[in-house]
Amino acid sequence: MVDIPAAPDGVMRGLGDLCPGWCTERVGGRLVARRVERLSDYQFGHGCLDEVTAGSVTELLLVCEAQNTLAERIAVAETTARGVCGPVS
Questions:
Q1: Please, is 4 exposed, middle or buried when counting C-beta atoms within 10 Å of its C-beta (0-12, 13-18, 19+)?
Q2: Among candidates 54, 65, 69, 66, which has minimal Cα distance to 4?
Q3: Partners of 51 in the β-ladder
Q4: Which of 8, 18, 34, 89 is the most buried (most CB within 10 A)?
Q5: What is the pTM of this model?
Q6: 40 assigned to some structural domain
Q7: Which helix H or strand E contains 32, and what residues bound it?
Q8: Residue 22 in 3-state DSSP?
Q9: What is the average pLDDT score of the chain?
Q10: 38: which residues sit within 8 A by CB, 6+ positions away?
Q11: Do the beta carbons of residue 56 and residue 31 sit within 8 Å?
């Protein structure tokens, strides 16, 4: 397991390269990651999360990676839906 101590402000330093697109911090013994970029309504409505929590850095990295993959695939579906059906909200 990888563990990176929190800075005095609670923000995790050193996860930027490992967890791209997420801002991470420790909150009450848990690790919390929030997306830097906003999700589209379509992504949000199809299961993408803008915030995730984990008990360890390793768990957090895996969850963020899974969410990044999901968001990318849902964005492709959104593009496909727009091409077939017109605008999607």
A1: middle
A2: 54
A3: 34
A4: 18
A5: 0.75
A6: yes
A7: strand 30-35
A8: strand
A9: 84
A10: 50
A11: yes
| Confidence grade of residue 56 (pLDDT, cut at 50, 70, 90) | very high
Quote the DSSP letter at residue 86: S
Residue 6 lies in a domain: no
- Nearest Cα residue to 71 out of 48, 52, 46, 50: 48
* Helix (DSSP H) and strand (DSSP E) numbers for the chain: 2, 3
Rg for the chain (alpha carbons), in Å?
15
Which range of residues forms the domain containing residue 40? Answer: 22-79
CB neighbourhood size of 32 (10 A): 18
Number of domains composing the chain: 1
